[in-house]
Design brief:
Length: about 230
């Protein structure tokens, strides 16, 4: 006879962590996420229900299938996944586990989730991210985004962190992870660099203006002040 664990009835929804790629709809009116493994072809919103990625008609999660959302208990375990080359531009999600779930040693597989916070890593240049910019890949109808500072936008389709949160809705918080700068004299001491949301919005607008000015200069057109670009 196989013994089964008692059914859990928590008073508060369990929480967990996962990583995902931020995505922006083709028309720029919606924002969401796409997974990094099973089900990665199906973008989801801040509040979403899971379905079987194999097209089977059972409810997710099913004990005899791999379907359902996945998350881990430990934040550090999720952050460790960001070290791999293919996941460097993913973001860390703090989620509420809703509906039916299956508990396993490292985390949960579950039917419904709410993303509470998305933590965005630094730009590829190492600077704190001010925006999420076109990552040059995507899914049908969705552009994948990656962290970018104002100086590295270079005219790409982009949305500020606050703008992404507004488009995603449902009370999502999007925050930038401080950059970590290690010096030869003190390899163990990180220097935290914080960027307020308003400063990020201003930096994004300034970067776009700088790019347009550079394009005008290349074409030999006068700048916004009516004078030549030098």
């Amino acid at each position: 006879m196989r013994l089964r664990l008692p059914e859990e009835r928590p008073t508060e929804p369990p929480t967990g962590y996962k990583i995902a790629h931020p995505v922006l709809s083709q028309d720029g009116t919606r924002a969401g996420f796409t997974g990094v493994s099973l089900g990665g072809a199906l973008p989801y919103g801040v509040l979403a229900d899971a379905s079987c990625v194999y097209g089977l008609r059972h409810r997710a999660p099913n004990r005899r299938c791999d379907c359902g959302f996945h998350c881990v208990h430990d934040r550090a375990a999720a952050e460790a996944l960001l070290c791999t080359a293919e996941h460097r531009t993913a973001v860390l999600l703090d989620v509420l586990v809703l509906g039916r779930y299956l508990r396993f040693e490292l985390g949960f597989r579950y039917a419904r989730q709410r993303v509470r916070t998305a933590t965005v890593g630094p730009c590829a240049c190492g600077t704190v991210a001010a925006a999420l910019a076109d990552a040059d890949w995507g899914r049908p109808g969705w552009r994948a985004l990656s962290p970018s500072c104002a100086g590295c936008l270079r005219g790409r389709t982009a949305v500020s962190l606050a703008g992404f949160a507004r488009l995603a809705g449902e009370g999502l918080r999007v925050v930038a992870r401080p950059a970590t700068v290690l010096t030869q004299g003190d390899l163990g001491t990180p220097e935290g660099l914080g960027v307020p949301e308003l400063a990020a919005e201003a930096a994004l607008l300034q970067a776009r203006l700088d790019w347009f000015q550079s394009q005008l200069a290349r074409l030999g057109q006068p700048g916004p002040d009516g004078g030549p670009q030098g």
